[in-house]
Each structure stands twice: as C-alpha cells, then as structure tokens.
Specification:
The chain is α/β, with parallel strands linked by helices. It has helices spanning about 25-40, 65-70, 75-90, 110-115, 140-145, 150-160, 165-170, 185-195, 200-215, 220-224; strands at about 5-10, 10-15, 50-55, 55-60, 95-100, 105, 120, 125-130, 165, 175-180. Strand 2 (about 10-15), helix 1 and strand 3 form a beta-alpha-beta unit.
C-alpha cells in the first residue's frame, strides 16, 4: 500500500510508503490519505495523528511523472482539488496532527508540514517549495506556508525554490521542535502525550475554534 496505517495507544500513524519515489504524492496517495483521515475523524478512540514517511524523505512533493503523463486540466485540477481536500481535512480533524520530519520535505511534502497542527524535525531535515525551479509554482503549498511563516519569508521560499535547514524552519515557525535523529520519536511522544492527557472534547472544540478564528475579523473572532 502507498500509505501504511497503524494505531497504537490511541495514536494513529499514517506513513507515506513510496520510498523509491521519495514518497511522491500521487492521486493514489491522496485518495488513501483522504480515506484514512475520514475514518480517523469518526473514531473517538484515536486521540492524535502522526504523518510520517518511509525512506530518505518525508515527501518530495507531487508525483511529477504522473502529472506529466496526463497534462489535462481535468486531471491536474482534480489532483490539486484532492490535495486541498486532504489538507482541509487535516485542519478539520478533531485530533491534532503532527508531522514527523525525518528527512527532506519539498513542495507538497513541505505543504504537509505546514498544514499539520504541529511538526517535529530532525536536525538534518531540509525544506523547500521548489516547484518554481521546474517552472511549476507551488500553488497549493503556498496556502499553509503563508499561514505559518512571515509573508516575506514565505514569498522567498516560493519564488526562489531555495532550501532552508531545520534550524531555520524552527526560527521561522514552520516546525515546533528540532532534535537529533535518535530522539525524534521520543520527542513526538512527549509532545503528543502533553496534549492527549487533556479531555478529548476540549481538544476537539479548541482546535475547531483555533482555525475558525484565525480567518475571522477581530470582533467575529471574539464572538466565536
């Protein structure tokens, strides 16, 4: 399967499983992620979600080979709609979503990091929205990226395609923690543990409010 799903102690883990393709995000991957997230949303026993990747990268972004093989507006447009739906589902889940960044996260892979509620990275991780280097602007990644890092920093990443290292990602607000590789899972467990020891319904309601008020005008945010 292109996405492995496991649940242990109330923590669901979705692992992108195309290591030879640097976990390129194909339509099959998006459909598998969507199906898994929809099921998780309905499962009250699941308290948190970790998104990870097999192989050297979290994800190198969209599957360009697939996109170039079917360059119709219907296919590519449908692909981006499916990608946007996955990212919106991550935000609407009652459970917090944590990105486990053990390697490179580029383009739509960087989008996953930005769209997750929390992110923990190893010191060797690198991040980029590098589509522009191939003549493809990182359109969907620009949405969560520009809502996580300062505007000029997001613009720089999107329009240069340059990589930033893990410490820069931490300084810019793209990730929450940077740790040694052998401490990654323990740090995620500590962070998740601090959250799920709180009442489930409070976490769910708080997450819904957090995202709703972010996009609201000030008075409306207080009303919410």
């Amino acid at each position: 399967p292109v996405v492995l799903v496991s649940v242990e102690n109330g923590i669901a883990r979705l692992t992108l499983n195309r290591p030879k393709q640097y976990n390129a995000i194909s339509r099959e991957v998006l459909d598998a992620m969507q199906s898994s997230l929809d099921g998780i949303a309905r499962d009250r026993a699941i308290r948190a979600v970790v998104i990870a990747g097999n192989g050297p990268a979290l994800s190198g972004g969209h599957d360009l080979k697939e996109m170039m093989g079917c360059r119709t507006e219907a296919f590519v447009g449908g692909l981006f709609e499916a990608c946007s739906r996955v990212m919106l589902t991550m935000a609407s889940l009652p459970q917090p979503v944590i990105a486990r960044v053990h390697g490179t996260a580029t383009a739509a892979g960087c989008q996953i990091v930005a769209a997750a509620d929390l992110a923990v990275a190893v010191r060797e991780a690198r991040f980029a929205t590098s589509g522009v280097n191939l003549g493809l602007f990182c359109a969907t990644p620009s949405v969560p990226l520009s809502r996580n890092v300062a505007r000029k920093r997001a613009f720089e990443m999107l329009f240069t395609g340059d990589f930033i290292d893990a410490q820069t990602a931490l300084d810019w607000g793209l990730v929450n923690r940077v740790v040694a590789a052998d401490e990654l899972d323990a740090e995620i467990a500590r962070l998740v543990g601090r959250i799920i020891e709180k009442p489930r319904d409070v976490i769910a309601a708080g997450k819904a409010l957090f995202y709703a008020q972010l996009e609201a005008r000030l008075a409306e945010a207080y009303d919410l």
